[in-house]
Specification:
This protein is an alpha/beta fold. It has eleven helices and seven strands.
Length: 305
């Protein structure tokens, strides 16, 4: 009797596609990289660079650029694209605002990006913690520009205003993908709520630069990307980033395809034609990639308009 073994028993749920030649992060081993790592570790800080396995970590850390992730390393949501762990978060660290401020000072940052996990367990979603982190960072680093990448504060009312009261220089909230894919990619979020947050941020503080990011390669269509651009422009978003989705593991949302650099250039041209102050569209573009240089360019572009 012939025993037939079932096929694909050990096959990953969503096998990871081989990366093309243009998806290559820069490998840099420098004293600055290890200095950044030491400062982060000694202050018991969390960075999205590490938690989300960012492909640009060695390049950025070698320039002493680190994106701090506040309120712990555990998210209350389970987005299908994200590599940050999901679960029940711990209590907020009341000393974290000072720790962040001191780390920014030691790294001598001219521009800092501060993000967080989603904290749906907190009454205000962590908005007041953002407020404290921004205030302490500015107190100890008066010449450093501050960019925040916030959650959507879904069903938390107008708590987002607490973040804006601290006057960050850039208010970023990533739209991530097209509305059709939200139920699979961002099941805990709502497309139009994210749009509303960005729109309201600009209404609350006309001086703040608003920013949002989009991933491609999740199965979206070109016309859907263009529609998202129109929606973000209608919400008065200043800066749009577009980058390639890189599937973290076989358990994450499957990668549909890799976009060619020429396609990113085309998307950049389309976005610029819609009137965004700044557009960054490359395979390795991420929210905080070259954020310091981009902020300087935003300021210049605002003066031109």
């Amino acid at each position: 009797m012939t025993i037939r073994h079932p096929q694909n028993v050990n096959k990953p749920i969503n096998p990871i596609k081989k990366k093309p030649y243009w998806i290559r992060s820069k490998l840099v081993n420098s004293k600055e990289f290890f200095l950044t790592k030491t400062i982060v570790n000694n202050n018991n800080l969390v960075t999205v660079c590490q938690e989300a396995n960012c492909p640009n970590i060695t390049e950025c850390w070698s320039k002493r650029h680190a994106t701090f992730m506040i309120m712990g390393d555990t998210c209350t949501r389970a987005c299908a694209f994200c590599d940050v762990k999901t679960g029940k978060p711990g209590k907020l660290d009341p000393l974290e605002p000072v720790k962040i401020a001191e780390a920014v000072n030691k790294l001598n940052l001219k521009h800092v990006v501060i993000t967080s996990v989603d904290r749906d367990d907190l009454e205000d979603g962590g908005a007041n913690h953002f407020f404290e982190v921004i205030n302490q960072t500015r107190k100890h680093n008066p010449n450093t520009s501050i960019e925040v990448l916030t959650p959507d504060f879904l069903r938390k009312g107008d708590v987002y205003k607490n973040v804006l009261k601290a006057n960050p220089d850039v208010f970023n909230h990533n739209i991530e993908t097209v509305p059709r894919l939200y139920i699979r990619v961002r099941p805990g979020s709502r497309y139009f709520s994210s749009l509303e947050l960005l729109k309201n941020a600009k209404l609350v503080n006309r001086n703040v630069f608003t920013k949002s990011g989009l991933m491609v390669g999740l199965g979206e269509k070109k016309e859907e990307i263009v529609q998202v651009m129109d929606d973000l422009k209608a919400a008065e978003v200043d800066f749009l980033t577009i980058g390639q989705y890189l599937q973290p593991s076989a358990k994450h949302h499957p990668l549909d395809r890799y976009y060619h650099p020429d396609e990113f250039k085309e998307l950049e041209t389309i976005a610029k034609s819609k009137g965004f102050l700044l557009v960054s569209s490359t395979p390795l573009t991420r929210s905080s990639y070259h954020a310091d240089e981009d902020f300087t360019q935003l300021q210049k572009n605002r003066l031109k308009n």
